[in-house]
Each structure stands twice: as structure tokens, then as C-alpha cells.
Amino acid sequence: MAMSNWMIAKLSREGRIAEARQLFGKMPDPDVIAWTSVISAHINRGMVKEARELFDRVNAKKNVVTWTAMINGYLRRTDDVAEAEKLFNEMPYKNEVSWNTMIDGIEEARKLFDCMPKRDVISWTSMILTLSRNGRIDEARVVFDSMPERNVVSWNAMITGYAQNLRLEGGFNLFERMPERDVPSWNAMITRMVTAVGFVSGGAYGSSWIRSKNKAVRPG
């Protein structure tokens, strides 16, 4: 069983769906690992309908990974948010990965985020990114300010949100408050904000800001 599972996973990763299905079909009683590997392989190739047919055959052998893979398929490959949400609501058990998958994929994710029994920094950051992508930058900032702890990724996510929404002053001010600014963060800030500035003021404001802060804020 273990060798068959390994081969199915290998063939699936390589996109050799027909061979994976052939080997899978020869297994007398495939376990959840085999089922999930084949389902994920179809999803990765954009074959969501075929993946769903397999998913519906798994029955009692579905686990949280199987459910999350199928939900992710609808969100990433078909943009069928309604079906993804329907499956999510039917899940007998949800973990942080499944919650984060839904948060990252649903435009109206805030109500789902608020229902999470436990949130980690990935959950918070995913919510910030989702809100920012949908133009809800002020709401994203409320989420950011409510975070019990932040890392460099969450700071950069919020700054990126300001840049994407052309809220330059907010992005610059937040960067100045950032407690840890390494070289990648500094370079990313310049790239994001100056690109956004080009749409607003021809770069004059951003260039002036960078020159004024070059001595005050230096990468460590």
C-alpha cells in the first residue's frame, strides 16, 4: 500500500494522470492518501469535474486534506465560490488550513474570518491581503491593527495593500513604523510604493520621500 501511494503521488506530481489512475484502479482498497493524491492531481491539471466525481466516491474515507483540496480546486480553478462555500459548510471537521483556504478565496471573507475559533498570523495576513485586493483597504487596516502579533510578512502585506490601492501616504507612514526593516523589506517598499507613485504624481513625491528618509532609515 505504501509503495503504491508513493507511486501515485509521484505520477500525480509529474502530471501523468492516466498512469496514476491506472495504478489507482488496480488497488483493491485505496486509502485516503491514494484518493487525495489522485483528486489533487486532477485539480492541478484543471480537471475539476473529474476530481469532484472521485471526491464523491470517497465517502467515509475523506479527511480534512481531501476536503480542502476539493475546495481549493473550486476556488483556484473555476472561481466557483458558491460550490466551495457549500463544501466548506459540509465539512465535518475544519482546521486552520481549510479556514485559510476559504479566507483567501472569498471576497466577502470577513464574516467567515470572524467565525474562526482560532486564528494564526497566516489567517490574519490572508484576511488583510483579501480585503486589500478587493479595495477594502480601510477594513484591512482595522484587521492589521487588531492583530495580536505581527511579523515582517504581515507588515509587508499591509504596505502592499496601500500601494495597490494608491494610498501612498498610508503606506509610507506604516513603513516608518515598521519595527524590523531588513534589506528585502526596504527594497520591496521602494518597488511597490514608487511604482504606485508613478500613477499618481509622476514619482516626485516618492522620490522626495526616499531621499529624505535615506539617512534616517537604513537597512541593518
UniProtKB/TrEMBL annotation:
<dbReference type="InterPro" id="IPR002885">
    <property type="entry name" value="PPR_rpt"/>
</dbReference>
<feature type="repeat" description="PPR">
    <location>
        <begin position="120"/>
        <end position="154"/>
    </location>
</feature>
<dbReference type="Pfam" id="PF01535">
    <property type="entry name" value="PPR"/>
</dbReference>
<dbReference type="Pfam" id="PF13041">
    <property type="entry name" value="PPR_2"/>
</dbReference>
<feature type="repeat" description="PPR">
    <location>
        <begin position="63"/>
        <end position="98"/>
    </location>
</feature>
<protein>
    <recommendedName>
        <fullName>Pentatricopeptide repeat-containing protein</fullName>
    </recommendedName>
</protein>
<keyword id="KW-0677">Repeat</keyword>
<dbReference type="InterPro" id="IPR011990">
    <property type="entry name" value="TPR-like_helical_dom_sf"/>
</dbReference>
<feature type="repeat" description="PPR">
    <location>
        <begin position="31"/>
        <end position="61"/>
    </location>
</feature>
<dbReference type="GO" id="GO:0009451">
    <property type="term" value="P:RNA modification"/>
</dbReference>
<dbReference type="InterPro" id="IPR046960">
    <property type="entry name" value="PPR_At4g14850-like_plant"/>
</dbReference>
<dbReference type="GO" id="GO:0003723">
    <property type="term" value="F:RNA binding"/>
</dbReference>
